[in-house]
Amino acid sequence: MTNLPPFLRLGLLVALLGALTVLATGMGSSHMPPGRVAAALLGYGARMDEVIVWTLRLPRVALAILAGMALALSGALLQRVTRNPIAAPSILGITDGAAVGAVGFLWAFSDDANLLVVSIHWQPLAAITGAFAFAGLVTILAFLDPGGRGPLRVILYGVALAALAKAAVTLLMIVGPVYRAGQALTWLTGSIAAAHWSDVFVVAAGLAISAVLLLVARSTIRQLVLDTDSAAATGVPVGRAQVALLALAVGLTALAVSQVGAIGFVGLVAPHVARLFHGAFAGGYLAATALIGGVIVLAADTVARMIAAPLELPAGALTALLGAPLFLWLLLKGRRTHG
C-alpha cells in the first residue's frame, strides 16, 4: 500500500471510515440497510428513520470516531516525543490517571445516601485533572533522574505509575459508594453507550484546535525523528517542543477518555497500523493515524454492540484484546533487537 500516492491512501481510509459509519449507524435493535441509512443522513428518508439515525445512533458513531482520532493522535505524538514505539496513553499511565480522577470524583462527591452532591457533568473535568497529574508525575520523575530521560526509562516510570493508579482506583471502588461502583466500572472499561451531541461537540472542538496546533508544528514534529543533538542542530528547541507536544498528547487523551472512558491501546495500535499502511515519513501520516484510530474505535464499538446482543460489551474490552498482544509482540521484538 505504501507505493500508492499519499492522497490516495488517505482517500481509501476516508472511504473505509465512511462505509463503516453507514454500517454502524444501521446496526441496532431496528436494523436499517445502508440505503435507508444514507437516505436518513441526507434528509430524505422516512421521519422515523431520521429520528433513529440523528437522535439515537449518529451521536454514538460520531463520538466513537472522534475519540478514536484523539487517542490515535496522542499515541503518535507520544511515540515521536519519546522515540519509543511502545509509548501510548495507556502505557504511560495517562489513561489510568484519568481513571483515578473520574472514580475519585464519584467517591469524593457522593453523600451517605450514595447520591452525587454535584452535577455528573463535572466528572470529565476530574478525569482531565487526573490525566495531567499523572503525566506530570512521569515527567517530573524522568527529569529528576539523570538517567531517566531515555525512552525506556520514561516508559518504565509510566508503567509503574499506571500500576499505582490501578491500585488507587480499586481502593476507591471498594471504599466508595456501592451504588456508584457499576458506573465506575463501566467508565473504566470504556463505553460509548451514553453518547450525546454535546459530547460530540466538545471532542470535535478539542480536535479542531489540536489540528491547527499540529499543522503549525508540523515541521518541528518531523525534525523530532532525529536524535536530540541532530534535531537541536537544525534549530529545533527540542526541550520546549517535547514539553509542548507531550502536553498536547495528554490533552487529547484527557479529552477522549473524559467522554468515553478508559478505552485503551488505541494510541498504541493506530500509529503502528498507519506506519505499515501509509508510511511514517509520508505526507499526511498524522491524518492517516487519526483516521485509523476512528476506524478502530468505531469497529470495536459496533462489534461490542452486536456480538452479545441484546447485551452490550464495553468497546474498551475489544480494543484491549487487539492491543495487548501487539504490546507483547513489540516488547519481544525490542528484546530480540537489543539482546
UniProtKB/TrEMBL annotation:
GO MF annotations in UniProt: transmembrane transporter activity
Main location: membrane
Gene3D superfamilies membership: ABC transporter involved in vitamin B12 uptake, BtuC
Listed transmembrane segments: 58-78, 90-110, 122-143, 155-175, 195-216, 243-270, 276-299, 311-332
UniProt keyword Membrane, yes or no: yes
Family annotation (InterPro entries): ABC_BtuC-like (IPR037294), ABC_transptr_permease_BtuC (IPR000522)
Subcellular location: Cell membrane
UniProt keyword Transport, yes or no: yes
GO CC annotations, alphabetized: plasma membrane
Keywords: Cell membrane, Membrane, Transmembrane, Transmembrane helix, Transport
Family recorded in the similarity comment: Belongs to the binding-protein-dependent transport system permease family. FecCD subfamily.
PANTHER family noted in UniProt: FERRIC ENTEROBACTIN TRANSPORT SYSTEM PERMEASE PROTEIN, FERRIC ENTEROBACTIN TRANSPORT SYSTEM PERMEASE PROTEIN FEPG
Protein name as catalogued: Iron complex transport system permease protein
